Amino acid sequence: EDGYEFWLRYRLEADTARRNEYIQYCGGEVVAPESFKAGAAYLELKRALPAILGKAFQANNAKAGSIYVGGRNAHPAIASLVGAGELAGVGEEGFVLRTGAWEGRPATIIAANSTRGILYGTFALLRTLQLGGSLQGLHVVDAPKMRHRFANHWDNPVRGSIERGYGGKSIFDWNALPKKVDSRLNDWARMLASMRLNAVVVNNVNTAKNGLEGWRLLTPEFLPKLAALAGVLRPYGVKLYISVNFFSPSIVGSLDTADPADARVRAWWKNKAAEIYKVIPDFGGFLVKADSEGEPGPLKYKRTHAEGANMLAEALAPHGGYVYWRAFVYNAKGDRTPQAYNQFKPLDGKFAKNVFLQVKNGPVDFQVREPISTLFGAMPRTDLAVEFQITQEYTGQDRHVCFLGQMWSDVLRFPLKGEKNDARMWNTTDAIAGVMNINDSRNWTGHLLAQANTYAFGRLAWNPETSPDEIASDWVRLTFGRDPVVVKTIVSILRDSWPAYENYTSPFGIGMLCDRGKHIDPAPASRGSVHRADAKGFGTNRTAAKGSGYAGQFSEPWRSRYEKLGTCPEELLLFFHHVPYTHKLKNGTTVIQAFYDRHNEGVATARDFTERWKALNKLIDKERYEHVRKKLSEQAGHAEKWRQSINDYFEKRSGIPDAGGGS
Ligand code: BDP
User: Are 447 and 298 in the same domain?
Assistant: First the structure.
């Protein structure tokens, strides 16, 4: 057990009664159109069913029930058990998964309107079996809430390194492609499909910064390599996208400009798009980081972001491709939080139809806690994509367990117009992207428990209303088995891990107190512009009245709530306000004492994780037990380092000692 299989571990169902039930319902034939039998879903069934059903399972077992797969026309069993309206209702990617009786025998139906829907229905059936769920009366009708569901890899093609990658190098061996396609890539594609992701960007958004060479993916040398990757992804219903450099016409091509208003530049992109679609007919499109952190963009030519994006959109449109244009744009001089809104809000309605504006969940940069980006809800005439970071750049990397399911759920379910209104943040987007934490380490993520984040992202992308606790519990049962002590212990660690990390690093929304390079160690002294600590108080004033104005960009009720100290949620107090150290919180404690307390509490919880884990000795395999044990013990030590550094620093700045005196 080394974690390589992800949550796709197919093990014998230990409960004999349950196993017999499975054989009754789906131990027989797979009745499906020939095209299905050549596809990925069939392969997955062939891999999983014998493993879960065991020896008693025989294909074509005369007494066992069959699995019927396809649309309503594929087989009378499907037409009889699935209503036309029901199937139409699940759209292009959804599915109906149900059991019933056909010709006097139990039967399982996987019905959908597309190959992708069938694939998702198949993975849904397998998940039910892996979790030991009953097949009696099973009737799932499911469809995605978001149309475009992306994995964004930040891998650097030439160097094999990963921007903010931890635990290993890139899984893409561009030198070996297209001749040699590592079998690992097929498992990667399976994993993406099992999460029901339907699109992937394979390279870093930084394509030229500091000598990076991601821009090369547009050169003729790389097109066959991309085509090979698309070939791996295609059977799994995943579209290939790449990040491109806005100056490609002059870096890849030989023009002396990249001005979107120049006819030669437009022609260059059109030709390039045609060249790509010739070898990859179902190519997805481009992700672009422009005029941001050294990546070039249209502003150099005094053109807007919309003009830049639309030029690329025009080149891709005839082929059905999309542009994802990132809104992570800021000028390092002032407070960055209001800047994206100021730049992009005036462009609402100016983007071409096949452009999505890709917005990070918050205005800073994937912090452990931030308010949501004010662009959500503010761009009604623009398609938005929300970008989360699965790789834990600011949340412990591959050294700390920090399960982000709850944070993402809070963002997606954020009531934009207040709790009494049904509008949720996710209603404003039809696309979602997660910056991947996948690398070439044997367990894919470095820290095995970080796979829970990969998994949670997929579940929430499909349905943002899914409960994070349910996701955590499913992930644990799929990954470690169903022993109740195992499930309870690991779920409790996952659930407490985000609050713990927030406590010992950055409570009350104070923000980035980490070092400027790797973003893993505490470095409060170098972050004066973040915490704004002086002799009297700390926190950043982002009010409309007296601060940088971020609060003022929200619509009501949030604008007023964040603006006023008395109504600002305490978890974001220091994000929006500069307060005296002695400011009293609702429970009567001073904010500085509460700040120390939370660091102390965070460390205590991190230490407790190592204790909780001990209960699993012998309940799970040694290899994974030891791996996580070591990680948790390192985490406890590092949490202590954070506590000491931060509390010491603020004791000195404020002159107020920690009365709780953490140990
Ligand atoms: C920050 C990372 C940086 C990325 C940048 C981005 O520190 O490595 O390139 O965001 O999203 O989180 O473009």
Answer: yes
Question: Could you tell me the residue range of the domain that residue 424 belongs to?
Answer: 148-469
Reading the block at residue 51, the tokens are 């493993």
| CA atoms in the 13 A half-sphere facing the CB of 316 | 24
Given a contact cutoff of 8 angstroms between Cβ atoms, the answer to whether 330 and 357 are in contact is no
Measure CA of the first residue to CA of the last residue in the chain; give whole Å: 37
**C-alpha neighbours within 13 Å on the C-beta side of residue 639:** 33
- Does the active-site annotation cover 92? no
* 472, 403 Cβ separation under 8 angstroms: yes
What CATH number does the domain containing 222 carry?
A: 3.20.20.80
Into how many domains does the chain fold?
Answer: 3
Does one domain contain both 121 and 241? no
The CA distances from residue 322 to 148, 278, 313, 350, 609, in Å, are 11, 16, 6, 15, 44
pLDDT in tens, 579-636: 999 999 999 999 999 999 999 999 999 999 999 999 999 999 999 999 999 999 999 9
Letter for the amino acid at 3?
A: G
Given the residues 365, 410, 469, 608, select the one marked as catalytic.
365
Cβ pair 283, 307 in contact under 8 A: no
Cα-trace Rg, the chain: 26
Which atom of ligand 1 is least distant from the CA of 394? Answer: 12
- The size of the chain, in residues, is 663
* Residue 26, both tokens: 């789906």
CB atoms within 10 A of CB 175: 11
| Pair of tokens at residue 260 | 């979107």
Q: Give the tens place of pLDDT for each residue, 78-92.
A: 999 999 999 999 999
Residue among 293, 611, 626, 648 flagged as catalytic: 293
